[in-house]
Amino acid sequence: MNPFKKAGLALLVVIVVVSGTSLMFPPSTRVSRYIYIERDIETVFSMVNDLHLFNTWSPWARYDPDTRYDFSGPESGVGAKMQWWSRNRKVGRGSREIVVSIPNERVDLSLQWGRRGKAEVRFYLVKQNEGTGLTWSLHLEHGLNLLSRFFGPVLDTWQGAEYEAGLKNLKELLEKENQGRSDHQIKKTILKPAKDLPPL
């Protein structure tokens, strides 16, 4: 057989095997993490319902302080949108927009995750004793994206670790604020937006 035909056949076999293996993985991935915060549910809700405050506790903010941001829509709640861009691969580029906001209960966001596509994010709040139980979850449909399916099973480990770090940051921030730090001081840590981001 012609060497080129052999190489082509071998490549075809590899593609078929990889494709077949990828399709054996789940078509979607869910990541969910929970934390208890010793703070009233109204305050916790206000933090996850305002994208301008996200970087005060975001697990990704520490990776690249030079990340550029653009905010649009209302100050908070449904329609509020944040777009970001970074040269750091751990941060990348994308956008998140609040699509559902139920006071003191939940906030749903549509996440445009760069080349990974779209995902659904939810913050779910429950009043517990004198504090608040907060769950941060992500749902990603892989569709026919074979690479996305292949990495789906490890996404819980990777993304879960970031969610745990973010929730811990939020807990520390709010519980310290509860001991004397004002909301005004918290808002001073917001990163300034940039209006010249490249299109997604």
Number of strands: 7
Give a short account of the largest sheet. 7 strands, antiparallel
The domain count comes to 1
And the CATH topology? Alpha-D-Glucose-1,6-Bisphosphate, Chain A, domain 4
Straight-line distance between termini = 47 Å
The strand line-up of the biggest sheet is 1-7-6-5-4-3-2
Number of helices: 4
Instruction: Give helix % range.
Output: 25-40%
- Going by CATH, the architecture would be 2-Layer Sandwich
The CATH homologous superfamily is named START domain
What would you report as the Rg, rounded to the nearest angstrom?
A: 20 Å
User: How confident is the prediction overall: mean pLDDT?
Assistant: 79
Q: How is the quaternary structure best described?
A: single chain
Describe this structure in words.
This protein has four helices and seven strands, in the order H-E-H-E-E-E-E-E-E-H-H. Helix 1 (3-22) crosses helix 3 (146-177). It has helices at residues 3-22, 41-48, 146-177, 183-187, and strands at residues 28-37, 68-72, 81-85, 93-102, 106-112, 118-128, 131-141. The protein has one domain: Alpha-D-Glucose-1,6-Bisphosphate, Chain A, domain 4, CATH 3.30.530.20. A seven-stranded antiparallel beta sheet has the order 1-7-6-5-4-3-2, covered by helices on one side. With 200 residues, it is of the alpha+beta class.
Features of the shown structure:
single chain; 200 residues; alpha+beta; Alpha-D-Glucose-1,6-Bisphosphate, Chain A, domain 4; 7-stranded antiparallel sheet; 30% strand
